[in-house]
Amino acid sequence: MKYWLSVLLGCLLALPHMANAKDDNFNYEQFTRDYFAAWTNVQKPKATVKDLEHYLTFLTDDIGYQHLPYSNDDSRASDGKALMRKGMSYYLGIHTEYKAQLTNSAHGNNVIMIEFTTQAKGIHPDNGQEIIINNSTFEVLEIDKGKISVIRHYSD
Q1: Does domain 26-155 have CATH number 3.10.450.50?
Q2: In angstroms, rounded to a whole number, what is the distance separating the alpha carbons of residues 152 and 66?
Q3: Residue 16 class from Cβ within 10 Å (0-12 exposed, 13-18 middle, 19+ buried)?
Q4: Could you give the 3-state DSSP secondary structure of residue 95?
Q5: May I ask which residue range the UniProt record assigns to the signal sequence (predicted)?
């Protein structure tokens, strides 16, 4: 009886490690490259709904998004992806020029940090005014089951 109790206890203790073993195989470098390529494709002058939908495949349905000072709440919301789709659709294709370069990345323990520079021009959909962007951006991406669950966006 003690033997079977020990075996059962050992299995129960090992279960969390076995469940996380799948995460140990997560390729952070490839994910970072693929995510950044999808992000930049959505920003390009001729970005399409197909580009946007591809980008959204990297996100959980309940994505949380924080972009200070515009959005200071990073809580995950059940309709987070739908909100991202709506917001990004509004700005889809507004750039007349776009260039971004990934300058730094790091990862560990279900978090990816990316840093990149952006140069862009476009026309703002609200007021028709020209937009000129030349900034550095830092993002922290929380990973949950192979997808981004929270984005914290910091830029000049």
Answers
A1: yes
A2: 5
A3: exposed
A4: strand
A5: 1-21
Q: Are 104 and 115 in contact (CB under 8 A)?
A: yes
In 3D, which of 9, 106, 122, 63 has the Cα closest to residue 55? 63
pLDDT digits (tens, 9 = 90+) for 132-144: 999 999 999 999 9
Q: Rounded to two decimals, what is the model's pTM?
A: 0.82
